[in-house]
Amino acid sequence: MKDFVTSAFGWNEALQQAGFAKSLRQGTCQLITCEGDQCGFVHSDVEPDLLWLRMLCIVPEMRSKSIGSQALAKVISLCSVLEKTLYLNVLVSNRTAHDWYRRIGFVDIENDGKVSTLVLPPSSPPALMKRDV
Predict the structure, then answer these.
(1) What superkingdom does the record give (predicted)?
(2) Where along the chain do its domains lie?
């Protein structure tokens, strides 16, 4: 994600490490494994009235194998059980991820030119795609 962050904000290694460490202390981070190998992680945070998908990262060589779709489906299922709406932020420069979330059914609700905030409306069932980010 370094290229996307750099294009949006510039890169400051110390700031990125501090921000990442702080973010991981919030919510839950789960490793994604495939055939025993770590292939990504999901970081989410349940708040009183919503659930934030903070990060969904799949290692590049494991993309396009529906791993991200399966991980997202579990997050969406959790939202359903908890009766919470799912929100996420995506860097505008990460068009592949942004477009993937839109195809699934997420809707842009805010965009500052660098970061787009999306929501999965509870009334619209997600159309999880076979294509992965």
Answers:
(1) Bacteria
(2) 2-120
